[in-house]
Sequence to fold (628 residues):
Amino acid sequence: MRRKLISAALILMDALIVTIVSYLAFFIRFEGKIDITHNQLMLSSLPLLVLIRIAIFYIFGLYHRLWRYASISELLAITAAVTVSSVLILIVSMMTGRTFPRSIYIISWFLNILFIGASRMCIRVITYLRCTEGQVQQRVLIVGAGDTGYLTARELLLHGNCGKKLVGFIDDDRLKQDQRLLGVKVLGGRKDLKKIVEKMQVDEIIVATPSLTGERLRALIHDCRQTGCRVKMVPALHELINGKPTMEQLREVNLEDLLRREPVKLDLDKVAGYLRGKRVLITGAGGSIGSELCRQVARLQPESLFLLGKGENSIYEIDQELREKYPDLHIQPIIADVRDRRRIRDIFWRTRPEVVFHAAAHKHVPLMELQPEEAVYNNIFGTKVVAEAALMVKTEIFIMISTDKAINPTSVMGATKRVAEQVIQSLNGMGRTKFAAVRFGNVLGSRGSVVPLFQKQIAAGGPVTVTHPEMKRYFMTIPEAVQLVLQAGSMATGGEVFVLDMGEPVKIYDMACALIELSGLRPHTDVEIRFTGLRPGEKLFEELLTAEEGTTATTHQKIFIANLQAVDASKLEDRLNRLVQARSSFEIRKILGELVPTYTGVPESEEFLHEEHGAALSAAAGEKMMTS
Fold:
């Protein structure tokens, strides 16, 4: 009802404007002296003029727009509606013989655009004044006077002004400085930031600089925080809906912003091509990588999606999330242990997956150093069980998630992942299944990773514990890593170990400092950073390749293929049999050293190892792996 009343009010207002404009056009044309003939002509034609104008305005949607957000598109609509109605009036006048002086049509066209446009702008101005009246205004400064800064300012001025007032821009481009954008001045560059904040009494800074690299952005955010202002970030383009920011999408600066990387570009047709309409099974589906694989695969319209995992709570959560978003997709949660050969075979016989993503693994380096038998049991033999089941049911593609810790490993976890790579390499070519692995580094925000740990320590007031001031790691966001995994799957021909371009490694110490600053605190002043020393199995720097391996480029700029030596399947099987029978942690490490010659975690003797947990793989466990 309210919408109809507003439309009726606009129609009445436009009818009045058209009437006034008609009289003004004659008044201007005859310089205030309208003779009786033209006056009668105008009055007799007025009802038809008003009817034509209002009808055309209605057709052009002038009564179905939110005029409080009026912009250039609305002005163009008004211009088009007035022009079409003017042409139609001219045609009708000629057909009825009631023609006006030609200048009347031109004057009337111009005045209608002017008055109709002005009436709509009044609506926007009144909305602005009502919105700002009585509000405590937060004074906002935008960093970046480019396209993103313009879009952000436009949103702020259109409907983000309730409680916020844009006071200016800063931009290092000298050609933009002292110029105005949307009527707001570019006040200076980054070097002037502190002075501008103090002069303009800025409360909040919005960073709208998508082109900055991570290092430069970190420095900019640091400078912004030094001013004491609240700092917000315009999301990256892939986060935006329809490519433009809204005030609701502005968010606090996060670590992904400070580690800014180029967005991943996918060949969606190629990726979707091997997943659409297929039965897809994902192991470790409740984990950080596994659950994101589920989300992204679900978007690509598979026939069925099987969520396999050991933890019932995590599987339940991802199952519920996907069912809510994709009610028409056939989703089946499966609780199972990848090490249980009989159970996994039964699942594969029933589901017949055409594509398998194997993400189930033990990944915590220090924990696996204390329980090497679990790393071997899960990472090596769990992979072997799932891969052989895939081979048995003639799965088309099998992709294993690997790690940079498999290169020149110093840890049991890294060595077991390298052996897992060898397992799927050895199985490739034994059937129709194409086996491949995808190797990448750390992902931001994954369970048990360094970022959530640091955030928890900061929330507790510190100290933040860093193992070594020079420790570096490669980092990716979870969605980015998964997108590249899916892309690599579309490239697999069998036997490849794909290596993802992880960008530049990041110092863990720098990351700790950045997270402390993002919390509005100061490293070493408000929050202590304590160095604890390297833990068992850790190294200062992770590699994605050995010096001998090298890579072969693929059609994707961020995906490469490691040039690995062929695997001797018989020797691998012999050592795996010995690994099953291993009775101590020392034996396990020794056999891993034979399987992975670059593994440096082999102790000199069993006494040197200082074992605390007794025997490793029990005979019963070994029997289960080989016969169940």
In short: Residues 268-441+476-502+557-609 form a domain with the Rossmann fold fold (CATH 3.40.50.720). The first strand starts at residue 138 and ends at 143. Confidence is low (pLDDT under 50) at residues 237-249, 611-628.
